[in-house]
Amino acid sequence: MVEGDKQSAVLRAEGEAKAIENVSTAADKFFVGNAQLLKQLEVTQASLQDNTKLVISDQSRLINVLGLTEALAGTQVTPGKQSKPEAPSR
Prior knowledge:
The relative contact order is 0.06. By secondary structure, the chain is mainly alpha-helical. The mean pLDDT is 73. The protein is built from four helices and no strands. The termini are far apart. The protein has helices at 2-30, 35-48, 61-65, 69-72. It has a domain at 1-50. 58% of the residues lie in helices and 0% in strands.
């Protein structure tokens, strides 16, 4: 029984590795050199899936991926200064 579980785990891992290889190959073929960008988008999607809240630097590449560049165009942050959060209303 233990040997069967071990073999099952090995086969599952090999299948997952092959799936990753296939996605990477397809991304390189059809998105020409953008396999890394595809992975970034997949990670971003997985991260935001459960209403996750993120604090993102304005220098982050994620700003570009999410299309937030224009939203931040009018904002300016002074280095070393932090704004105080608003007090909760009662």
